[in-house]
Request: fold
Amino acid sequence: MFKSKALTAGIAAAVLSSGLAATPASAATGTFASKTVHKAETLASSLHRYYTNVTPNGPEITPEFEARYNLTKDAIEEGWDVINEVSSPRIKRILRERLEMAVERQMRAAYYFDAVRYGEKLKRATNDFRAQYSETPSKEMQSAYFDLIDQTENYGKLVGKVYRSNVREAMGSEYILPAKVAYQLVGFDLTQFKYNLKADQAISDNDKEAALKMIEISEKLEEKDQEITKALLALFPNSAELKKDADKVEENIDPAIMEEIERLKEEIDAAFASFDLSILHSNDTHANVEKAPKRITAIKEMREAKENSLLLDAGDVFSGTLYFNEFKGQADLELMNLAGYDAMVYGNHEFDLGTEPLARFVEKAEFPFVSANVDFSNDANMKNLHSDTISEAPENGKSYSAIVKEVNGEEVGIIGLTTAETATISSPGEGVKFEDYIAEAKKAVAELEGKGINKIVALTHIGYEDGGGDNDVTLAKEVEGLDVIVGGHSHTRLDEPVFDKTGEEPTVIVQAYQYSDFLGSLDVEFDYMGKVISHEGQLIDVSAKADDAEAMEIVNKYKPQIEEVKNEEVAETPVALDGARDNVRTKETNLGNLITDGMLAKAKTIDPDTVIALQNGGGIRASIDQGTITMGEILTVMPFGNSLAIMDLKGSEIKEALEHSVDTAPAQSGAFLQVAGMKFTYDSTKPAGERVTDVQVKGDGDAYAALDPEKMYKVATNTFTAAGGDNYTVFENAYGEGRVSEPGYVDWETFSEYVKTNPEIKEGGEGRITDAASQQ
Reply:
């Protein structure tokens, strides 16, 4: 990569020269900027001379190096400033490419700079430690001993960023080896001391035989101590001072000692090695049990191909199909246990029926749960299942703030976070509290890092850019130390990972859409410090996969009961409900009114300020005959399982959306909106974008008031439309600005609840949508 950038910079310089000649108006600015960038390049290029050739005194930061380093930083900052003043986009891009290469060189020097400073700190700690060591090791001394081990290992990971082998070896000889020798010596000395104490006790007890045995062991430890000390010094042969006594012992050294040396070498090599982790993930499956066998086939295939893998679920297994209505998550759980999940975070829908079904779900799970910001301490069902701790040995069927999973010898921390919206959009009960997700995430990260864990995954159910007050984008920017965020809640389809570079370390964000349509796959490479240095991810479409045989046996056990439920009567309708494609996509229908009325009623239970509901005609797929309404018919009308969303929109944005709704009228359009809480008039003979002539919003009772372009309104719709489906860019913009909350609640379930309690169904329209052209 470095060579290719150098080549690019050389070509860029030539292009820049020709560009300057061709554009006299920008020549002065471009020439000055080019000279400024060249100064930064020259200074950055010279930095390597100060650390690639190690001084006779070993690694050090000379005054000349520090001065040149500071000059380079200043020159780079100046370069960015002048580039911003260049008017030509092409020249600006070329100069940026050149300056980026200078930054890369400066960063290499920065690694050396930091490594030496940390090394000197370690060296002082090593000297202090050995100076304080006595024949009576105190608890404080032992604590310092273990602190020194931690410092040594952390330093080893930092210095690995300096690429030149002679620099790394010199630093190892100067800093790492003395520290290793120090704690190796102390390790034997502590053991010797224990045997000396035992010998003293045996003498006091007049047990001569035991005393002689203890003294013999102590003497052997001292002999081994001396051999290992010399052998350790041979690990870094380029250091003459450390090597002088090593040559004499290498020829006659005990084979067991050589084995110890090789083990130490492997330990040191391992400290500098990168680590590859594969994360398979699902979210918002919402009881789509019949799709699970294909997902499990994909899981098995990916696990076979990826050795270091974790399988995680980001919540909302509950609610969405008849399987949940009938089995309260147990059908899903049996399939998840078969798949072998490693962890799951609670989604808001896990609380839809209170915590009793959730507790049964947790208890029978063959994997642990995580959620750092949910307080179950006052909940009778969950308080004995959840521990507000970080577990390094998590139990199946238990819940923790975070857990540590070992993957091929490497420890990975997994933190759970659940949206605080759950308190208002679900039914957790008074005993469950939701705490600030940022504060709890920072706390959990600090605890994990305190345990020496530097690879941390946040398993979240807060939404990618959800407008409910918490989301993954904000989490990545505000919490340092999170390497990966595996998300859910917003049903976001991230076809490839999002890479957030805020802070000292980057964060990879993934989410796998909804309803078991995809299995997410993310491959991450960590460096010695636990920093993500490369990543690659995709969503695997499971629809083409074969059904896993074991999973199908489980599904077939539950399916007959579901088929029976589909024939169950939900309500009665005195008139036919018009869902014909030609009608719902061109005009108001009584079925469209009924669906939006139900949507508005549900939204008001969550946010009483909601006044409007919108349903895209393309989401209504069939009519319902007069008479009995069955569950099967409702599922045919709304087969997509779209969830509820509540948008904050200005009146002008609502008007813009209505214009889009009717821009092809009287021709059919899936974007045509059925409405509740409002009525509007348009003229299909006018130009698109100028058709809506009047919009009235229903207030208290039956009173209507004109739509105020500047007023903010709460508007309910489905998540497909809210995210910009059917080309609603006005909604998409609101979504991107965090003005959309996604409480969930699947459309067919909301509709079935509404028709049960609202038997008064009208035959035709109610004047909610009027085409003035048709009245002429």
